C-alpha cells in the first residue's frame, strides 16, 4: 500500500521508497530517505489539505512533515493496528 492511500489517522511502517512516476527523480527519493522515510520507521497520516487532497500532514518517527501527493505515492507502507506502535 502507498502512504498516499492511507486514511487520516492510520498508522503504518515504511517498507521502502520507490519512484512513483517519471516525474520523481533520484534526488526526491534520496531526500525522502534523508527525512526519515526508511524501512521499519513508523508513520502516520494525520490529515489532508483542503478537499482531502494535498498537502498531507504526515508524522514519521517523531517529526511532522507536509508532503505533496506525488511524494506520498513514493512511500510504500505496511498498515498496523493502532495498539501496535
CATH level-3 fold name: SH3 type barrels
SS content category: alpha+beta
Give the full name of the CATH homologous superfamily.
Answer: Ferrous iron transport protein A (FeoA)
**Whole-Å distance between the termini?**
18 Å
The rounded Rg comes to 12 Å
Tally of domains: 1
Lateral arrangement of strands in the main beta sheet: 4-3-2-1-5
What percent strand? 35-45%
Main pleated-sheet profile? 5 strands, antiparallel
State the helix count: 2
Describe the fold and architecture.
- This protein has helices at residues 26-35, 69-72; strands at residues 11-17, 42-48, 56-60, 63-67, 75-80.
- It is of the alpha+beta class.
- It has a single domain (3-84), classed as Roll (SH3 type barrels).
- It has a five-stranded antiparallel sheet with strand order 4-3-2-1-5.
- Strand 2 (42-48) and strand 3 (56-60) form a beta hairpin.
- The protein is globular and about 30 Å long.
Question: What is this structure's SSE topology?
Answer:
Elements: E1 11-17, H1 26-35, E2 42-48, E3 56-60, E4 63-67, H2 69-72, E5 75-80
Antiparallel strand pairs: 1-2, 1-5, 2-3, 3-4
Gist?
The chain is α+β, with helices and mostly antiparallel strands and 85 residues long. It is built from two helices and five strands, in the order E-H-E-E-E-H-E.
Key traits:
85 residues, alpha+beta, SH3 type barrels, five-stranded antiparallel sheet, 2 helices
